[in-house]
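User: Here's a structure from my thesis project, written as C-alpha cells. My advisor, Dr. K., wants to see whether a designed sequence matches the one we expressed. Can you design one independently, without my sequence as a hint?
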C-alpha cells in the first residue's frame, strides 16, 4: 500500500512541480514530512544536501532518496527500499514524459499565440514563489541552529549564507566552487 501511495504522491509532485527541482522541494517536503510523515525534517534536510551534492537534477535526486528513506523507515529491507526509490523517481518523471510527448508537436505550432504566451506569463510568478518557498524551507533550525541553542553555529551559518549569496550573485563565482568553499569553512569553523 505504501508503494501505491508513494507513486501517487510523487506523480502529483511531478505534475504540479513547476520551476524545476528547486521548485519541487517545497512540495516534496510538504508531502513526505508534513502530510505522510514518511521522513523527519532533519532527514529531509539531509536528503536535500545530498541531492545538491550528487550529479543530476535536485528534484529527481530528492525523489530517489525520499523514496528509499520512506520505505526504509516503514520497516522494509534494502531491496524494497531500492524499489521505493525507483517508484518515486519514475512517478516524478512520468508526468513530464507524458506531457512532453503530448504537447511537443502542438507547442511549436501554437507557441506564438496569445493564449500560450498568457499561460507562460501567468506561470512565471508561480515559479518564483515556489523557488522562494524552497529557499525559506531550508532556513530552519536544523540548518542554522538558533542564537539561543548554539550562537556560534547560527552566526557562522548566516555568514556562510550571505557569503555564498554574495559570491555567486555579485562576484559570479562558480556555484560548485562556492559549495566547496562553504564545506571547507564549515569543517574548519564548526567542527
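Assistant: Designed independently from the structure alone:
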Amino acid at each position: 500500500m505504501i508503494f501505491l501511495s508513494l507513486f501517487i504522491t510523487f506523480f502529483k509532485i511531478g505534475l504540479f512541480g513547476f520551476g524545476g527541482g528547486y521548485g519541487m522541494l517545497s512540495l516534496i517536503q510538504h508531502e513526505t514530512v508534513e502530510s505522510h510523515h514518511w521522513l523527519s525534517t532533519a532527514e529531509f534536510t539531509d536528503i536535500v544536501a545530498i541531492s545538491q551534492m550528487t550529479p543530476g537534477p535536485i528534484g529527481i535526486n530528492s525523489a530517489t532518496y525520499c523514496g528509499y528513506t520512506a520505505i526504509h523507515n516503514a520497516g522494509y529491507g534494502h531491496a524494497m527500499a531500492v524499489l521505493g526509490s525507483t517508484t518515486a523517481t519514475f512517478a516524478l518523471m512520468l508526468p513530464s514524459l507524458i506531457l512532453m510527448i503530448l504537447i511537443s508537436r502542438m507547442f511549436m505550432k501554437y507557441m506564438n499565440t496569445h493564449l500560450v504566451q498568457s499561460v507562460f506569463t501567468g506561470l512565471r510568478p508561480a515559479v518564483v514563489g515556489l523557488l522562494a518557498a524552497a529557499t525559506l524551507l531550508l532556513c530552519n533550525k536544523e540548518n542554522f541552529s538558533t542564537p539561543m541553542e548554539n550562537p556560534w553555529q547560527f552566526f557562522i551559518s548566516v555568514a556562510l549564507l550571505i557569503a555564498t549569496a554574495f559570491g555567486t550573485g555579485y562576484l559570479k563565482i562558480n556555484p560548485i566552487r562556492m559549495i566547496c568553499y562553504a564545506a571547507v569553512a564549515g569543517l574548519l569553523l564548526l567542527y
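When you compare it with your expressed construct, this may help: The mean pLDDT is 88.
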